[in-house]
Amino acid sequence: MAHKLLLAAAAREHTAAVQQMLRLAAMRQHVDAALVEAMLCQLLAHQECVRQLCALPAAEQLSSDAVTRLLLQAMQQRLPAAASQLRRLAAAEQLGTEQVGDLLQACVRTCSADGHGWLLNDCLQWILRLPAVRELSSGAIVRVLNTAVNNIGERVLGLDQAVFHLMKLPAAATISGDDMAQLLQAALQCNSASLSLLDGMWKLPAAVQISGKDVGQLLRMAADPTSGIVTILRGACAQQLCRLPGAATISIDDDMEPLLQAAVAQRKVDAFAFASVLALPAVLELSADAIVRLLRTTLDSSFAI
Fold first, then answer.
1. How many Cβ atoms sit within 10 Å of the Cβ of residue 130?
2. C-beta of residue 194 within 8 angstroms of C-beta of residue 201
3. pLDDT digits (tens, 9 = 90+) for 264-297
């Protein structure tokens, strides 16, 4: 009977009734972990009810899966007070790497929806303090970064700090050059990619591992005038890519002339950024005919200004 009364009150969000019943020892003795989870699912938006439920002995018996489900719900519903209470439960400290990865993904997706800074500045910080975070694989970090690249715009509050904390995770240092190249490709294909996020990614050790072939491909994407990429993102990426060791290994055989043609055509938009492309060692390997074609493109671009 006690179960039914508590569940019925929670389902109807009769918070006064719930709080009164939870004050009665005769009712509390019938509360188990399953009932706590069921009631929390209904009452996460009511801070006092969440506090009372989390203080019950039965709440300490919640499984890590149950706490993960509740935390995901709290983040999806943008309920920072509820998340703050739930993270103090014993099971929160026992979350596994897969569960922590799910929480990170949910945090990134939710904060991207409308720029809720609390998700990054509050939720992300305590997620990153969980023990399992230190055991996350590089693949898990790549998935989180990929979600961030595709979903987070510059409008999200506290983004630069969040990126800083993500990049300090041990697994971030083990991301491969290939994974880094794929992340940058995703950023260049996404018009709303965040410069703060990219600035953090350039600091990863994987950046210097990007091959010359991948650097060339990324530069072509950045210089492509038909790509729809915002100009400031093109220029910033071009400058950073040209500073990488892989840029010095680009050869004339790597479609260098089309890249230079695109770079020359872009000079009227961002002369400083794309001038770095023209300083690559492979430029010295250009044939006389190729140089003539580049000069023609330069003149055409100048007259088009």
1. 21
2. no
3. 665 544 555 667 777 888 888 888 888 888 788 7
pLDDT tens, position by position, 94-117: 999 999 999 988 887 776 655 555
- How buried is residue 48: exposed, middle or buried, by Cβ count under 10 Å (0-12/13-18/19+)? middle
- Quickly tell me which residue has 């100048």 as its tokens: 302
Phi, psi dihedrals of residue 142, rounded to the nearest 5°: -60, -40
Q: Which two tokens stand for residue 238?
A: 């071009």
> Cβ of 272: how many Cβ atoms within 10 Å?
10
Give which of 163, 226, 161, 225 is closest to 193, Cα–Cα: 163
The closest alpha carbon to 259, from 234, 231, 230, 232, belongs to 234
pLDDT number for residue 260: 76
pLDDT at 2: 72
Of the chain, the percentage scoring pLDDT greater than 90 comes to: 29
Residue whose pair of structure tokens reads 């890249």 in the numeric block: 259
